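Researcher: We're teaching a course module on how sequence relates to structure. For the next exercise, students receive a sequence and then see the predicted structure as C-alpha cells, so they can try to spot secondary structure elements on their own. Here is the exercise chain.
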Amino acid sequence: MKEYSATLKNHVVNCVGKERKKKKKKKKKKKKKKKKKKKKKKKKKKKKKKKKKKKKKKKKKKKKKKKKKKKKKKKKKKKKKKKKKKKKKKKKKKKKKKKKKKKKKKKKKKKKKKKKKKKKKKGGGGGGHRVTSNKCNDVPRRMQPSKK
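Model: And here is the predicted structure for the students to work with:
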C-alpha cells in the first residue's frame, strides 16, 4: 500500500466527516416533519366521530315523539284575543329662551407710524436705477424690473 502525504490524509478525513454530519442533520429534519403530519391526522378523525354521534341522537328523539302523539287526545283550539293598539302620545317641544348678549365697549386704537421702506439697489454692474421690490404695487410699471 502506498503511503499518502499528510495534506491528502487531512483532506479525505475532513470531507468524509462533513458528509456524515450532513446526513445526520437531514435525518433529524425528516423525523420532525413526520410528527407534525401525525398530529393533523388525529384531529381530523376526532371531528368526524363527533358528527356521527349527533346524527344518531336526533333520529332517536323523532321516534319517541311519534308514539306520544297517538296516545294524546285532541285539544280544542282556543280563540286568540285581539290586542288593542295603544295610541302614542305626542311629546310637546320646549321653547328655548334666548339669552341677551352684553354689549362690549369698544377700545380706541392708537395709530401706528408707518416706517419708510429702504430702497434696494439692483444687482449687476451698479449702473441700474434704484427700485423697490416687485410685490409693491405703488411703484409705476416702468420702474419695476422685468420678471424674466
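Model: If you want an answer key for the exercise: The CA atoms of residues 1 and 54 lie 78 Å apart. The helical segments are 6-71.
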